[in-house]
Fold this sequence. Notes:
Layout: E1 9-12, E2 15-17, E3 38-42, H1 46-57, E4 61-66, H2 70-74, E5 79-82, H3 84-92, H4 96-99, E6 103-106, E7 108-113, E8 120-123, E9 138-142, H5 143-156, E10 160-164, H6 174-177, E11 182-185, H7 192-196, E12 202-218, E13 224-230, E14 233-241, E15 244-252, H8 253-260, H9 264-274, E16 280-284, E17 289-297, E18 302-303, E19 306-308, E20 314-315, H10 323-344, H11 348-377, H12 385-397, H13 399-410, H14 421-425, E21 428-429, E22 432-433
Parallel strand pairs: 3-4, 3-11, 4-10, 7-13, 11-19
Antiparallel strand pairs: 1-2, 5-9, 6-9, 7-8, 12-15, 12-16, 12-17, 13-14, 14-15, 17-20, 18-19, 21-22
Helix pairs in contact: 1-5, 1-10, 10-11, 12-13
Bound molecules: flavin-adenine dinucleotide.
Flavin-adenine dinucleotide (FAD) is lined by residues 42-48, 65-68, 73, 78-81, 170, 186-188, 192, 212, 246, 248, 289, 291, 310-311, 318, 321, 323-324, 327.
Amino acid sequence: MDRWSFSTLVLDPHDMVxxxxxTDELSPTNKDVxxxxxxxxxxxxPTGALLALGLxxxxxxxxxxxxxxxxxxxxxxxxxxxxxxxxRLLERLDLWTSLQPYLVPFRQLCLQDQWxxxxxxxxxxxxxxxxxxxxxxxxxxDHQPLMQELLKRLDREANVALQLGDRASSGVGQARDAGFxxxxxxxxPKSSHRQAWRLPLWSFPYRQGCxxxxxxLRGAAPATAHEYFRAEGPFAVLPLGGQAFQLVWSAPxxxxxxxxxxxxxxxxxxxxxxxxxxxxxxxxxDQPVAVPLQWSLAxxxxxxxxxxxxxxxxxxxxVGGQGLNLCWRDVDELIALVAAHxxxxxxxxxxxxxxxxxxxxxxFLIGAGTDVLLRLFSNSWRGLRPVRFxxxxxxxxxxxxxxxALQVMTDGPMTILKAPPEWKQRGFRHGVQQ
Length: 434
Ligand SMILES: Cc1cc2nc3c(=O)[nH]c(=O)nc-3n(C[C@H](O)[C@H](O)[C@H](O)COP(=O)(O)OP(=O)(O)OC[C@H]3O[C@@H](n4cnc5c(N)ncnc54)[C@H](O)[C@@H]3O)c2cc1C
């Protein structure tokens, strides 16, 4: 089993079931289409589109709606930090190789604080051994090639009906009436479906926003990403290939908006004063966008056959680049549970209930972790500086601490307790060879 192993689908913690892999033998040609589970997905962003592909490969009949056209969906200017948990999912869905030309690896991650001296370098050796052969700590992937590839694949899937650019069919209530076995809202942070389904959302807005922009920089070390903690907020510098970089610059929201409105040369001058030393801005490559930030979480991610996926159900601060990776871990869990329904008799109502239960722990731990990090490092309170110094010094000096921190960030906190199936197949337990 090299592409998708269901060997760890656990219906009962003590009852391991082994299921076929997600390849051609489960394609709709081998399955009675009328028996297939029907799923309506509202929203064809990176989360909804990836779920549609995964469920279609399981033989489900999928309808996916989005009020935006394919061009509008693909044309957003953003780039995502991709972690190892996302890599594994993309590999299982046979997308990794096609996306390879657009994935920009970083092999070093430098963590610096404006006030404390020690800078921490994470390198390949700090990854769990099971991840090291991928030869990168993470990757940066531009939104456009990602969405173009996902929509192209969906277009080819016989059992996916893509309804894009159709505002009428995306309205709240349309899918509910269509009699799907499962209805998934992947319609982003302002999810109208979450509101219509009366699923509550806990939301803690930050005073901070973030400015996202693409720039060309001189003086950057190759394949290196930076997370720089400044008093006004964290500042991430992510390589996009060559001299191009994505910057995610957090600061009070008003300040972000003022900066977004500056003319390019004034903004570049300002950037030169805040970038980590050695990096010099040369040119702006896109229009900066200021976005408000919040930590939000729906305490119930499902009700009956209605399910919240991706940013429709949660959002966290961009520090650590967790956002899309958390959304894709939702996708991973839901595909595994639908597979358990189809091949191991898990009742349909259990799919949504277990999805909600299982995802909440990961989402809460990452949301709370980024929130604590932010409160600790995004302020100029002198009393905290020694604490920051000691934390950075410990991470700098102790390889085990670096390994655990990197595993939490790139594989997810749950892998500390339970290894992903790929690790087990390759003889790794908790990322370490047996
Ligand atoms: C301006 C901005 C910049 C960002 N920059 C970064 C970044 O640099 N790095 C990073 O990792 N993350 C970034 N993010 C976060 C990242 O975009 C999200 O993590 C990711 O897009 C979540 O994917 P999603 O599919 O859940 O939601 P979305 O990408 O928001 O997709 C939701 C989709 O649902 C559709 N939709 C809306 N209403 C309906 C409806 N009623 N019915 C059907 N469909 C509907 C929308 O048209 C959209 O296509 C940024 C977000 C924003 C807003």
